[in-house]
Request: fold
Amino acid sequence: MEEAEVYYADVLLPLHLPGTYTYRVPREMVDEVQAGVRVVVQFGQKRMYSALVRRLHTEAPRWRAKYVLGVLDERPVVTERQMLFWEWMASYYMCYPGDVMAVALPAGMKLASESALSIHPDFDGDLSRLTKYELQVVGLLTDHGTMRVDDISHALGIQKIMPLVRTMIERQVVVMDEELRERFVPRKSTYVRLAEAYSTEEAQRRLFDELEAKKRTKQVELLMKFMTMSGFGKELVAKRELPQGSALQTLVKNGVLLTEEREESRLEHYDSDSLVPASSIKLNDGQMAAYEGIRTDKAHSVSLLHGVTSSGKTEVYIKLIDEQVRAGRQVLFLLPEIALTAQIINRLRRYFGDKVGVYHSRFSASQRVEVWRRTALKDGPGRYQVLLGARSAVFLPFSDLGLVIVDEEHDPSYKQQDPAPRYHARDAAVYLARLWGARTVLGSATPSIESYHNAMDGKYGLQTMATRYGGFSLPQVEVVDMKQAQRQGEVHGHFSDTLLRAIRDALAARQQVILYQNRRGFSLRLECDDCHHVPQCVHCDVSLVYHKATNSLRCHYCGYSIPVPPECPACHSTRLRMVGIGTERVEEDLQIMFPEARVARMDLDSTLQKNQYIELLNDFAERRIDILVGTQMVTKGLDFEHVSVVGIVNADNIINYPNFRSFERAYQQMTQVSGRAGRHGDAGRVIIQTYNPSHQILQKVQDGDYEGLYRDQDNERRVFRYPPYYRLVEITLKHRDSDVLNAAADWLAAQLRGAFGARVMGPEYPLVSRVRALYLKVVAVRFERSEAIGDAKKLMMQMADDLAKQDGWARVAVHFDVDPY
Ligand code: ADP
Ligand code: ZN
Ligand code: ZN
Reply:
């Protein structure tokens, strides 16, 4: 008699655990269990998880394996390539594949026994389409509001609840709670339509005759434009697409045109007839050379597109994307910030319509699952071919990836800081493209030293676009010596007369202004004039920042906050002084100096709520804001038409940041924010305020001398043994007791020195040596670029495991950061 074979599944759990776990597959599930499908397993005492099958086999483990409890998918939801990608990421960035799985899979696909469920707000209440068990779940949730999967399972006495719940989520009968919290608030825009009185051809003719007779040429022009765009008044036209100015205002005032606020529907349908063909874009010579250079470069699979701000990189991307879309392949388009997606989505949808999918963390769980599903499709009308997103989009289940574009490739927000995997999305994307045999294009006006180095080394192809599209000139950069200005009495508050005059001129010409200040809050700290005491965070080793809007002192590391003390907590003096300025202060001062201007602020505090970000940008684009004050957020690749002045309030803050990348960063930030000025016409002006006007970085920003910056920085990095010549692995240890921490850090450093000798640096306290009541210490190891360090990484992870086994050190957290940013 032949014995039936017993099958086992190695599964991956979305948890911080090494490797896979083996479960036994019940006979009746053998046909359904395959690599890439999710199964339900019990892990630990009672918790249930959806786990991912990595491999199916017949090798019995040495212990008694638990059974797989259920199968969630009929077909794989994660491909072999994705799992290889996860495994690469885990080994390169020194974490576990489970850590990668936890961030890679959208929350909606990680159903676990502790997930909370409630009735979907859009559920139509049609009970006739529910099964008996589904009815019971709906009944329970109606009574209780929200329940955990576990509790539903107990209440109903159904063990295999997960597959049932999964179907109910997919049919939008129930939702996972997390999703409810992040429900999408639709965004609004102003639309213009023709008043009812002018709906007939006759009335329209009379209107035009009348305006022409009165020689209102501006109004006639605008109205003509509106008529063409609206199909002679049949449709609405977005206000921002019309020329702004008095003609429009007059037509609205006279009741010819009406405005209204409308939701911009998110999942618009794009008629294939109404799309603009990408072939209609006429590239100029520089763009054409770059485009051809990239697509015909047989020697390199990665190209760096170095194009100055507003050189028209996006149009080059669109041409490259078009080629892939027509060949039926997919494109991944990465951006550093979600906020940037709004502008680019519109630009891409004009050409590729509903083939464009957007993926990022601010979307709800069900939206993310939907994008995931449509990316995986191999064909059919719902398939996404252009996937746009911030760093997590590298995890999408592509079915045929042909091209990867990383825009603003220099941007530090591509690096994930916490939790693991601490990956760099640009570098991960280059690897992903390699897995697919796809081409990668890295674009920037201010490339990272690493990428430019790779281009100089011949590893990457290099295309350069040195002029702005349309023949517009790059903005003129002026450096204001604040010390001298002060001496001459030309400083008011924190602004030089030069900057104030430029703002006044811009406002008078109905132009807009962007002011960059890299610190948020009102003042950076309070200081006692008598004893020099500065209020500190009780959990972190930093001073508290004064926020006037909330009249509080706040810690920017942990959120700790106290009311502003009326007197010095140390000596009771009432002479507390504000030191340093942040965005709140800049905003307030400007509002006082320019009372009629509309001033707004864009920083973490003003954009905490979902979509506030997008609304601010929308308001700015539609000129409901004259002066926008902000942190790094305003420096990124935004394309506004009417910005003529950019001011950098305090350049010294930006330059003097103690990090080997600080000059590179300062150059990038200042050049990028400058690049927002004068993009569509009149030359823009950039005014940089500083107490150190002869600083080499300012000189280079002024001259637009990227090559010079690169030469200096690359040389310094070589001499001082930093990337790109060396690879850094930074190991951070944390513990609430500094003695324990010091002992553990010394022990680890000794182990590392034993293995890697002089490559080891530290342990040292980082700049901020205590965060959230945990002390921090850092040990760094640098390897030469040419060294293969796969084994070294494994050894280091082993040492961390050994450390945790030492007496009393189990709770010392050890984090690896490879290629820290
Ligand atoms: P970058 O991304 O290089 O900063 P953009 O791609 O935003 O620059 O281009 C700047 C502006 O020039 C945009 O408004 C864009 O629409 C316009 N532009 C660039 N290239 C073309 C082209 N070939 N045809 C028409 N408009 C273009
Ligand atoms: Zn004091
Ligand atoms: Zn704190």
In short: Confidence is low (pLDDT under 50) at residues 179-186. Residues 329 and 400 are 5 Å apart (CA to CA).
